[in-house]
User: Fold this.
Amino acid sequence: MFNSLLVVVAAAAAAVYAQQPAWAQCGGIGWSGGTTCVSGYYCSNINAYYFQCVPGVASSSASTASTSSAPQTTTSKTTATTTASSTTSASAPASSATSGVQIRAVQDPIFHLYLQNQNDTAVLGPEASSGYFTIGGTIALNGGAAPLYLNIGSETTSYRSLTFGSTASFSGWGLEGDTIITTQSSKYGRQLNFVACKVGSVFQTYLQLGSDVPAGSCTNYVSLHLPCLC
Ligand SMILES: *[C@@H]1O[C@H](CO)[C@@H](O)[C@H](O)[C@H]1NC(C)=O
Assistant:
């Protein structure tokens, strides 16, 4: 009953805006645009800062995430910033998203693009939708109901896809200074090169073990770093 009331309130708040098109942003901290998606898409909580219209029907957790964003954005539009930030910190995804570190590339054409999740695939994209990670053995993406882990594909090429999953199948990630590596004792040995290939407006990211490069517009020998030694 309380939930359905929330949905009605959220729908009323969202009705001010047009429905968001496929793949558009539909919520997240700081978002003040529409929070509903066109038919066939639902608003999925990619991370606390970025909700996106993705194909399908909302699961109960996804619809909770998108409805909770509506009061948040409404509040930030109608009240002072201080009120908005206290609203933000009261929501569970927001507080967990602020924990963790960002991971970014530092060379052209991906200079200061940030690691994040798109369709469970690791991509480098804008800071506004950056993931926040906990690194140590696994690389855990914070901000959702439960962390998602950065896993390495088992392709036979020397580039391996990087995906996010609810269980960690690789626990050999580490840091060397501010640089992301697979550790010497891991099954890949010490690696610190990645391949980034343009997909839409972001770059799909692969672990690079040799000189193979996927078809398309790719940059290899990319390294990934924390923004600071922090
Ligand atoms: C995610 O899926 C959409 C729709 O299929 C696609 O346009 C986008 O390129 C995908 N992202 C990646 C990184 O594959």
Q: What stands out?
A: Residues 2-91 form one domain. The two ends are 45 Å apart (CA to CA).
